[in-house]
UniProtKB/TrEMBL annotation:
Annotated GO CC locations: membrane
InterPro entries assigned: ECF_substrate-spec-like
Coiled-coil annotated spans: none
The keyword Membrane appears for this protein: yes
Organism: Tissierella creatinophila DSM 6911
Transmembrane portions of the chain: 16-37, 43-60, 72-92, 134-152, 164-185, 197-221
Keywords carried by this UniProt record: Membrane, Transmembrane, Transmembrane helix
Protein name: ECF transporter S component
Amino acid sequence: MQEDPNRKYKLNKKRFFFSVLILTIVIPIILLFGIKLFNDRRYNLISIIIAFLSCIPFFIRFESKRPKAREIMVIVVMASISVTSRIIFAPIPGFKPVTALTAITGIAFGPEAGFLTGAISALVSNMFFGQGPWTPFQMIAWGLLGFIAGVLSKFNLMKNKAFLILYSIFAGIFYSLIMDIWHVLSIDGLFTLEKYKIAIVAAIPFTIIYAVSNIFFLILLNKPIGEKLDRIKIKYGLIE
């Protein structure tokens, strides 16, 4: 019996909106809830909840089959490479390949895989750099950047070098803006627009470093790693 393509489209559309709901609305609400309820003192619990929620949209993609070990292993490997790269480039503040690797995963395997890779990369790498109230913010920032890259790839925008540069600049600004929220809250637990503006201005040098780092690593790594991921995806029929 031949599958109805319209039904498949509706399922994919429903799945996508469910993913958007969890990753862009539910997870930020959980983060804000944790800040208000626990006064940022239960960041480990919040990080675990975010990691769990990040997995849900990824596994929902396997609506018609059970995920195989090799399909999950690809995400594990990309997150491991991301963590290792952050450790290697630790001596250079802000100059890290994490955003690029997260984006490349999202481009190859979809928005949900990109978010999961970014969130897990932040959680695991902070086992080396130190866990803290900043961890959930990093998980959301890198996760959303992976998700956005995956969405943009659906329109073939991420194949254009000029657009990759624009995305890299956007990613540097986006990451900085998210982390500036945590910086403001870390001062006295209160968020005001005035303090946020000051934090943004103070972080401009680091934002520039983030952007330059993203441009360098995304242009350098997108083609070689992306082509390998595409071959793996085609060969094993992964995460269709």
